[in-house]
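**User:**
Everyone, produce one record:

**Assistant:**
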Amino acid sequence: MFASEVIAHRLRTGCQTLRYPAGPAPSLPDRHGGALRLDAARCPAGCDDCLPVCPTEAIQRASDGTVVLDLGRCLFCGDCVEACPEQAIQRTGDHRMAVRRREDLILNGPGREEARLAKALEEKLLKLFGRSLRLRQVSAGGCNACEADTNVLGTIGWDIGRFGIQFVASPRHADGLLITGPVTRNMEMALRKTYAAVAEPKIVIAVGACAISGGPHRDSPEQLNGADSVVPVDLYIPGCPPHPLTTLDGLLRLLGRLDENLQRVGRGS
């Protein structure tokens, strides 16, 4: 009787794994808000209402007077959105935020209202990692928020293993590193040794505001303001913490898997 009840329950619940990217575009929780968009043209001269409310100084005025928003520093708290009288800064609800270059997270004018999303790895690396990517996760002084949401990707709801992506216990078995945390001085040597232990060629992914820019404790003498101060970074995934969907989207973009999966579903396979 017990076994039959279990089977019946499984049939009722059906598949619990997110159909991404082939399924309907998933919506983020109301409190998340997704990526930010900056329309600098709507910022009136002399208005600095958004600057003092930002806890990480992600919003600044450039030398030419224009407002600049650095999504790599942003905690996505939304205080700037509420403070802006002209609604120049807006939430988009878009989970896609991962970029290949640090400067692509800086919004500062026409053509740069939103982050420039990541492109796939170079052809040689795609041939190596495009269908099988093993990552060693390094918590370099993080608060465990990014670590927890990264761990979620291995659960039944997300199942990143279906894309050939796995987290491994040893850098000797890894193709690259996924780094969280601002890289505290106590973790600097550990990160360098872990990076050195990964065989060439290898990739590095920085997840979260801390790993990208140092986070809320940026410029503290006890940390190094992010992963790229120690190792080269190939993918930046902003957030505090990034939503698991943002991280998944970034990984698939890096591996050139988004179009491939959509085409596969379109063919009915």
Observations:
- Confidence is low (pLDDT under 50) at residues 260-269.
- Strands lie at 36-38, 59-61, 67-70, 89-91, 106-107, 133-139, 165-167, 176-180, 203-207, 235-237.
- The first helix runs from residue 2 to 13.
- The CA atoms of residues 96 and 249 lie 6 Å apart.
